[in-house]
Predict the 3D structure of the following.
Amino acid sequence: MIKKVVPTVGHNIIGGLNRVFHCNFYNAYLQMAVLMIQGTEKHDPERLLTDSVTNLVNLLKQQDYSIDDLIQEFSASGFGKLQQLDTNTWITPHSHYGEVLCMMHGKPQINCYFTSGYLQGLLNKTVRETECKLLGAEADKFLVGDELPPVANYLIYEFELETNIPERFSIDQSFATNIDEAKIITALRKMALCGDAETGLIKAFGAVLTNHFADYYNRISYESYFALCEAGIPEEDSKEMFIQAGHICAFNTFGRIMESSEWYDLVVPMCAKKEDWLHGMIAMLNGLGWGIYRIEKIVAEDKFVVRVYNSYEGIGYRRMYPQINDKNISFLAMGATLGLVHLLWKVDIREQPELTQEFYVEQFNHPDNSYMIEQTHAIAAGDEYDRFIVSK
Amino acid sequence: MNYIINTTMLFYALNASRKKSQLEEIDNALISSKLGILFALRTNGYVNFKGEQIELNDSQLIVLKEVFTQHFNVDMANEIRMLAVEQEQPNTNQQNNPPVKKGFFNKIRGFLKPGPKAQEGLI
């Protein structure tokens, strides 16, 4: 039985775990960034990509998920179709991570670490991928091995969600806008962004989406970031690898949403001026499980200040690690917020440009007319909320 | 022997090779970040690919070629051979000192607003 989503102060909880929508472009980039530490002596990114989800499946099982529930949930979340061939073999004829769209830059290789980890949790056995569609196989194939050694739970700290969240436009600047956030979130929830019955994939807005585990993203991002820092990579370079992931996410996910017929039917009629598009996308974001975004200030074409209550990265960080001092730490939100500003003030998404890689390289991510981002407050650093300033 | 490679030309050659193989173009900022990280992880020495040029020795050139093959899916052996210019007076400190950001790469800046403690650390 598919478990219900429980919307809770900016989080979309299923089986006790927050879920966030992300597209194949983000997933591909993030996996590429994590795999950069492949081949180093001290770190094992393949295992990180695998075991990080095994732990979450173990937690779902503690919430009384049956094997059938987990198989259905895999498909409903857009990860693909799990099929058992025999006692020791499973396949995914269609899978998010086995799609060509989920590979970035590198030499094609076995790519479905997430699926292996999910199966490990489901079966409580070691699982490794032996064939992958990315390498020309007809289906991704997984071989079941021995009993799985214990996988440590990484969500080890209690950290409660903030419930005292200010109303829209009550922080600093007041805005005259017709953007109806409640209406947008209701419409988003009615869209049934759920895996297709045949493929288990969610194709929407010209991308392939997943209703992914926020804690999976957090774990693989922060562990890789720490590994890079530990290896002596300059902090700024390490951070930018992960901030770039959010920037790519904004371009592909926000950009495609803002060019979709759904957006034009629902949001555009509420928009009187360019900045209303910012309000519209922020309203949409507040339904995606990313936390609750509250715009603090907009100076057109110049400055954008936003707070995020219950940011999934901030909450996730505090559930995995002790509080830190560094405030520039919510990488996805940093890149995504910057990207949102770039969609309106650097390029103009209202002109409906074709969102190709060429457009990304030559215009969207071109250094000319770029904005910069600073995170001034971080839940990970003990603040009540994350806060971002985008400026020239 | 040490060699100098102009990064603008190197990235141009990389994207030309990728396009020839029907692969997508990658922006220079991302290429330079990725190369900096991958190179450091494999050689224990940080080279700033955001500079106008890089200086590498023979073994580092081999690593560079391997990184291109594995992480950018192109064989750049010929291009590296053509672009690598022998340096007359090897500067042993060069690889541990990030080149000054100037010229075209002035334009490559990161997403982060520079803070007072911005780290430009080395290994």
Q: What stands out?
A: The CA atoms of residues 15 and 27 of chain B lie 9 Å apart. The interface with chain A takes residues 24-27, 29-30, 33-34, 36-38, 40-42, 44, 46, 69-73, 107-113, 115, 118-123 of chain B (CB under 8 Å). The helical segments of chain B are 7-20, 28-43, 58-72, 77-83.
